[in-house]
């Protein structure tokens, strides 16, 4: 099995604010990180260029990451204060992104699902996506 890794490190500037409203800790407060992502692509055979994937073909992934996590506030769809966040968005004070849930685990799954939809075919598979807040905290979602 061949594998290649595409990394968008914390230095990429995907500065995202979010909160885990169900937390019993300070994570229930709005906080943020410059998120990083590591995507592992795999294939049993290489393409005609002897590559798993052409890294130059990942423009839609880069755009997706920027649209979702660059200077955004990501809030869970069931957050009890969602209406307030929508009001802040309508005032132009935040760039609101809603998704099923928040946190590194869900961010990794969200990006994984995008990559599967956008890039997987009979030959190319997405093994995993890792989302990291910084060097000490990360979460991985994948097909293991």
Blueprint (SSEs and pairs):
Layout: E1 2-8, E2 14-18, E3 31-43, H1 59-69, E4 72-76, H2 82-90, E5 96-99, H3 104-119, E6 124-134, E7 137-142
Parallel strand pairs: 2-4, 4-5
Antiparallel strand pairs: 1-3, 2-3, 3-6, 6-7
Short key terms for the protein model shown above:
144 residues; alpha/beta; Tetrahydropterin Synthase, Chain A; 3 helices
Structure, described:
Helix 1 packs antiparallel against helix 3 (104-119). With 144 residues, the chain is of the alpha/beta class. It has one domain (2-142): Tetrahydropterin Synthase, Chain A, CATH 3.30.479. It is elongated. It is built from 3 helices and 7 strands, in the order E-E-E-H-E-H-E-H-E-E. Strands 1, 2, 3, 4, 5, 6 and 7 form a 7-stranded mixed sheet that branches. The mean pLDDT is 96. The protein has helices spanning 59-69, 82-90, 104-119, and strands at 2-8, 14-18, 31-43, 72-76, 96-99, 124-134, 137-142.
Short description:
With 144 residues, this protein is an alpha/beta fold.
The CATH homologous superfamily name equals: 6-pyruvoyl tetrahydropterin synthase/QueD
Low-confidence sequence ranges: none
Distance between the termini: 13 Å
Percentage of residues assigned to helices: 25-40%
Please tell me what the overall shape is.
elongated
| Beta-strand content estimate | 35-45%
């Amino acid at each position: 099995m061949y594998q290649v890794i595409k990394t968008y490190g914390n230095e990429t500037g995907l500065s995202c604010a979010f909160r885990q409203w169900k937390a019993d800790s300070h994570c229930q407060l709005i906080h943020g990180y410059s998120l990083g992502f590591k995507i592992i692509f795999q294939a049993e055979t290489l393409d005609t260029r002897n590559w798993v994937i052409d890294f130059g073909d990942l423009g839609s992934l880069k755009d997706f990451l920027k649209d979702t996590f660059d200077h955004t506030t990501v809030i869970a769809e069931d957050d009890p204060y969602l209406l307030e966040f929508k009001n802040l968005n309508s005032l132009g004070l935040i760039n609101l992104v809603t998704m099923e849930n928040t946190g590194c685990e869900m961010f990794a799954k969200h990006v994984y699902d995008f990559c599967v939809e956008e890039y997987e075919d009979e030959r190319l598979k997405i093994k995993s996506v890792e989302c990291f807040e910084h060097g000490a905290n990360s979460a991985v979602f994948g097909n293991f």
